[in-house]
Amino acid sequence: MAFFSELKLALRFARRELRGGVRGFGIFLACLALGVGAVAAVGTVSSSVDTALSRDAKALMGGDIQIRQTHVPASDEAITAMESMGRVMRMVSMRSMARPPETQAPQGNATNGVAENAPEKRRSSLVELKAVGPNYPLFGAVTLEPALPLADVLAEKDGVYGAAVEKSLLMRLGLAVGDDLRVGQSVLRIRAEVVREPDRPSNFFGLGPRVLLSLDAIKSTGLLRPGSVVRYVYALGLEPGVSIEQAKERLQAVREPGWQVRDYKSSSPGLSRFFDNLAVYLTLVGLAALLVGGIGVANGVRASLEKKYEAIASLKCLGATRRLVVWTYLAQTMALALLGSVLGVALGVGSAFLAAPLLAQLLTVPVAITPAFKPLALALMYGLLTAMAFALWPLSAAGTISPARLFRGYGEAGPRRPSWQAAMASACCGAGLIVLTLLYAHNARLALGFAGGVLAAMAFFRIAAVVVMRVAARLPRPRKPRLRHAIANIHRPGAATPAVLFSLGLGLTILVTVSQVDSTLQRSISEQLPKDAPSYFFLDIQNAQIDTFRDIVAVTRGITRMEAQPSIRGRITAINGVPVEQAQVADDVRWALRGDRGMTYAATPPKGTKIVSGQWWPADYHGKPLICLDSGLAEGFGVGPGDTITVSILGQAFTPTIACTREIEWSTLSLNHTFVFSPGVLDNAPHSWIATAYTDSKQADDALFETVTTQLPSVVAIYVRDVLQDVDAIVRNIGMAIRLTAAVTLLAGLLVLAQTLAANLEQRYYDAVVFKVLGATRRDILVTLALEFLLLGAVTAAVAALAGCGLAWAFVNAFLMTQYAPLMGPLALILCGGVLATLALGLFGVRHALSKPAWPVLRNE
């Protein structure tokens, strides 16, 4: 009963303390609101995207079940089995080139591949053809402009098939609705503009504008040739009474090698994985902001308690125990923490509403921001646990204040220590944060890595603060008194150096890391890759066309190099006889099992091959099937020379033995395949060729493009610069989201910095009075303090630059696998901003202390 009586009394005291309002807790609340707001915003957006994808799952998938197969269509037996379970929608997709029908072959002197009257502007464009059957779409609706029935738009009228195209294609080719468009051997009439496709978000990234046409129309183009990269898709709308499990069981009896079967519960796995991973990373950055804000929480609690030491001593004189004191102010602190966390949740939800239009445009799916309980409760728990973890230490230490303070008039000698119970409770709160992160991230390595990174950062900045203070103490004493006093302020007892280094340093480190990684990636895309990368990738070159293609390249001026390899698509179905669904593979290579992979064959190693293990087969080899596998995949699959990989190609299963593994440098964009077969396996299978061409000028680019797309209209030409620009746009958008979240960390750090620099105003006031008595002017004091803040800011910026560049180097080399070079422009801008912020906040915080008169201190002393 005594326990509950004491708890009740503590709550009563806390309620009375709260009557004074939140004065002095502004930064406390702001730090919590910023961190919780970042986590709540990311969680709300992620939850809303998941809800949108789940709500429209069947429309995104195209049906209850979707079956995909490359190169060859499903058998009549399989289609009959599908039709026995419900409605079936057939679809064929592939890439091709499209151009206005008036484009003619180059005329004039053709020896150099450039026509004298060749158009200056390209008149062809890469497109993604999507041929659909009469049941399309099974779920959802296609939005066209003008609003016409899709069947009427795609129907054959007056001997011409219709098509619906995206607006971007009209803009590229200067066409309008009603004009004609040549695709392959056929001319299509553009009868509508595609505004929205219900199943478009399942294909998150496309290389060209969409062209919708009918199945009969794509047959008339002549593009469905053996070896062409064609995807046959079948969407199944189940009849009532037929479950997904039953349908999959029936399909298993007619399943063909190479089938990819998905149900609507995984309607857009690539898009879901992308947003889930992005949400996790943004949440971790938000947690970093919350942890920086935790320093502000601790400082706010400590500053508030310093003003109540006499009140605490009075309570002790009246018989209050240490536990009663701690509980009283812990209840007050957690009530304020709850207020700050609720404000953060409101801020996060508001930010999510602002992001909704951008998300809807990106996904082409209406995203209604709906606050969900789980992410908001998670953000609230993050805020409360962070506040308790950082507040318990100063609260427990304050409980040791002696009643003798009322009679002495000054504090006890030596620092006050928290109890071991408070230290354990604080550690438990930290463990709770790690557990919540584990549950949210679904990735133990990521969560533990984040926890380890936080602990390492705290240790790093603490060690850096000790080193800086010791170095400052051992520096030769400058002759100028202003600089001497500024250096002394850095290492004197009670100096703000540790707090400044951690609060501002961690925020600057995160911002430096993000900006350096983002700048390196953009520089790689915009500068490095185009210099070494080919100008064009040419796909779907038929066997009968490869010689003509080589002749075109040979007579076109400005072509410095050309590479060509046979290519066929296949799907990995087993590793060492174990189906891929049951195989144990590393997460970072699981992507290779989700779809078809490009494969080739060769008698001799491709130019620049670096064998990692095993040996290449002899040039005249004609034995059992062998392959040379990418070393990264081999390591992730846990295989090596002598092991087997089963692949399905054109519906037939092959099980070659791994003869060797090789290292592939993907960043050069050279022609590479992860699988290289020995001769005699794929030679006679229907396949196409892919090629790359390197040019030395823009004129050569245009000449090669016009000649190939005119003389070989079925060949797909991918301009590398266009692809890199699309990738660059995606990277910029992602980088902007991460930088905005990282800026929250920096803002929290700046708030804590302002609080830290202003925490010892009384000491600054006392120092200023002493200096004035000894003859110092107001200018002398201001210059001394400015030098101190400049030195603190410069040291913090240097430490943050070292840590940030180190983290950026590790990330770039480990994940981006490209060369890291510090970009001095963004780095200098961030660091100069940190130094100026330290100076401005420091001088702003002490302006009142310097303006006070000296007589109150002199009279009391």
From TrEMBL:
<feature type="domain" description="MacB-like periplasmic core">
    <location>
        <begin position="27"/>
        <end position="253"/>
    </location>
</feature>
<dbReference type="InterPro" id="IPR003838">
    <property type="entry name" value="ABC3_permease_C"/>
</dbReference>
<protein>
    <submittedName>
        <fullName>FtsX-like permease family protein</fullName>
    </submittedName>
</protein>
<keyword id="KW-0812">Transmembrane</keyword>
<feature type="transmembrane region" description="Helical">
    <location>
        <begin position="823"/>
        <end position="846"/>
    </location>
</feature>
<feature type="transmembrane region" description="Helical">
    <location>
        <begin position="422"/>
        <end position="441"/>
    </location>
</feature>
<dbReference type="InterPro" id="IPR025857">
    <property type="entry name" value="MacB_PCD"/>
</dbReference>
<feature type="transmembrane region" description="Helical">
    <location>
        <begin position="447"/>
        <end position="473"/>
    </location>
</feature>
<keyword id="KW-1003">Cell membrane</keyword>
<feature type="domain" description="ABC3 transporter permease C-terminal">
    <location>
        <begin position="742"/>
        <end position="852"/>
    </location>
</feature>
<feature type="transmembrane region" description="Helical">
    <location>
        <begin position="376"/>
        <end position="401"/>
    </location>
</feature>
<dbReference type="Pfam" id="PF02687">
    <property type="entry name" value="FtsX"/>
</dbReference>
<dbReference type="Pfam" id="PF12704">
    <property type="entry name" value="MacB_PCD"/>
</dbReference>
<dbReference type="InterPro" id="IPR038766">
    <property type="entry name" value="Membrane_comp_ABC_pdt"/>
</dbReference>
<keyword id="KW-1133">Transmembrane helix</keyword>
<feature type="transmembrane region" description="Helical">
    <location>
        <begin position="278"/>
        <end position="303"/>
    </location>
</feature>
<feature type="transmembrane region" description="Helical">
    <location>
        <begin position="324"/>
        <end position="356"/>
    </location>
</feature>
<feature type="transmembrane region" description="Helical">
    <location>
        <begin position="740"/>
        <end position="761"/>
    </location>
</feature>
<feature type="domain" description="ABC3 transporter permease C-terminal">
    <location>
        <begin position="285"/>
        <end position="403"/>
    </location>
</feature>
<feature type="transmembrane region" description="Helical">
    <location>
        <begin position="494"/>
        <end position="514"/>
    </location>
</feature>
<keyword id="KW-0472">Membrane</keyword>
<feature type="transmembrane region" description="Helical">
    <location>
        <begin position="782"/>
        <end position="811"/>
    </location>
</feature>
